[in-house]
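sorry for the late reply, my laptop died twice this morning and i had to redo everyting from scratch. anyway the thing you sent over, i finally got around to it. pasting the sequence first so we're on the same page, its 64 residues, then the predicted structure underneath. double check i copied it right bc i was rushing
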Amino acid sequence: MMNYPPLNELVSKINCRYMLVSAVAKRARRLMAEPDKIKDRKPVSVAIEELWEDKLVVRSQENN
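ok and here's the structure:
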C-alpha cells in the first residue's frame, strides 16, 4: 500500500482529481509500452512518482 505522496498534496499540483487520475493513467499506459523504464515496478506507482517529482507536467486543454 502506497502512503506517499499524500493524495491531497498531489491534487494541489493539478487542482482536479479527475485530471490527476487521467494523467497518471495515461502516463502509466505509456510506461507499459517501455518496460525498460519501469523494470519490476508498477507503472501507476512510477507515474505518480514522476508527477510528485515534477517530471510529469499536466497541461489542461480549454475549448475556446
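The chain has a mean pLDDT of 84.
thats about all i looked at so far, will dig more tmrw
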